[in-house]
Design goal:
With 161 residues, the protein is of the alpha/beta class. Helix content is 43%, strand content 19%. It has a single domain (3-124), classed as Rossmann fold. Strand 2, helix 2 (47-57) and strand 3 (64-69) form a beta-alpha-beta unit. Bound molecules: 4'-phosphopantetheine.
Length: 161
């Protein structure tokens, strides 16, 4: 049984992330979506909120779990018995950063392989930061994100009642 960890900030998750989850779930026996809770970035949603949105969006995939993690990704993967880290690659600008992370993760734990899945064409330019900007400025993001995320972004844009 091969377990893979798909890690990211997911602030918030987009349809591109969901596409990678679904494709990874078809290749690996078990996929753990790992939500980085200490990424050093200022996040719009708490780690708990990001986990909740992803759990709702992934509910139909029986071999997919969602968890927040702290500390090194390779340590989380090892604790979970994962032999693979899955990352999505969109455009060339992703490649350099992801390659560096894969290099360091391999140095830290050579037993864990990083596997890249190319983004599907409709999702190549989807970016959480742009989604947040559109939502903040009152635009509709329904076509770019799962329903659970769209709902939370709308609530967030409306502000406290
Ligand atoms: O969606 P992102 O911002 O590309 O996700 C980044 C994430 C959470 C995958 C990355 O920050 C991460 O792996 N954090 C854990 C810390 C770690 O293991 N660092 C050392 C190797 S890069």
């Amino acid at each position: 049984m091969t377990t893979a960890v798909f890690a990211g900030s997911f602030d918030p998750a987009t349809n591109g992330h969901l596409d990678v989850v679904e494709r990874a779930a078809a290749v690996f026996d078990r996929v753990i979506v790992a939500v980085g809770s200490t990424t050093g970035k200022q996040s719009l949603f708490s780690a708990q909120e990001r986990v909740e949105m992803l759990r709702e969006a992934c509910a139909d995939h029986k071999n997919v779990e969602v968890e927040a993690f702290e500390g090194l990704l390779v340590d989380f993967a090892e604790r979970k018995g994962a032999a693979v880290i899955v990352k999505g690659l969109r455009c060339m600008s992703d490649f350099d950063r992801e390659y560096q992370m894969a290099f360091h993760n391999r140095g830290l734990n050579p037993q864990i392989e990083t596997v890249f899945l190319m983004a599907s064409p409709p999702h190549i330019y989807l970016r959480s930061s742009v989604i947040k900007e559109i939502a903040r400025l009152g635009g509709s993001v329904a076509q770019f994100v799962p329903a659970a995320v769209e709902k939370r972004l709308r609530e967030r844009a409306r502000g406290p009642a």
